[in-house]
Amino acid sequence: MSSPSIVWFRDDLRLADHPALRAALDRGEPVIGLYVLDEQSPGVRPLGGAARWWLHHSLASLSERLRERGGVLILRRGPAAEVVRDVVTDAGAGAVFWNRRYGGPERDIDARLKESLRADGVEVASFAGSLLFEPWTVTTGAGTHFSVYSPFWRACLSLPAPRAPLPEPREVPASGRAPAS
Q1: At CA 67, angle to CA 63 and CA 73, rounded to 5?
Q2: 149 to 92, 131, 144: CA distances (angstroms)
Q3: Domain 5-130, second-level architecture
Q4: Per-residue confidence at 137, pLDDT binned at 50, 70, 90?
Q5: Bridge-partner residues for 8, per DSSP?
Q6: Sign of dihedral through CA atoms 99, 104, 107, 109?
Q7: Residue 108: how many CA atoms within 13 Å on its side-chain side?
Q8: Is 147 left (phi over 0), alpha (psi -120 to 50) or beta?
């Protein structure tokens, strides 16, 4: 019996250049796309009207693009850590992948969830999906963050080149065990 991979879509609602989606596909099991509208976890700000409009249309587009490739997108609402755990259990998922977020409360949610899922034997990995260089990779000689742009930019230029963009997958195999939205 297969153990699907869950791709937890968050701020990155695209198929091309999506490292978490690529990792799920490379695992070789069916893939379940998941989006969680979390306005309940501590420190997470609720969305305004314009952001909700954008999100609605972006999720509709993502869902359609996944469906065209054989995949599925599940939409849920609630505290992200609880909802992701519930979907993992309901789907019998063996892995969860996501692209990282960089805000303090979001990073705390992600770290706790990653630790908890791993303790339950679920494969979990997060990826740099929206930045050329992650914040902790570009620091001054003293190991602190830059406060002036020009030295920051020179430090970026001295680092190895960022990875090449990932292609959009042609297929996203869906799981027959995908929970309902």
Answers
A1: 45
A2: 47, 16, 14
A3: 3-Layer(aba) Sandwich (3.40)
A4: confident
A5: 34, 98
A6: negative
A7: 7
A8: alpha
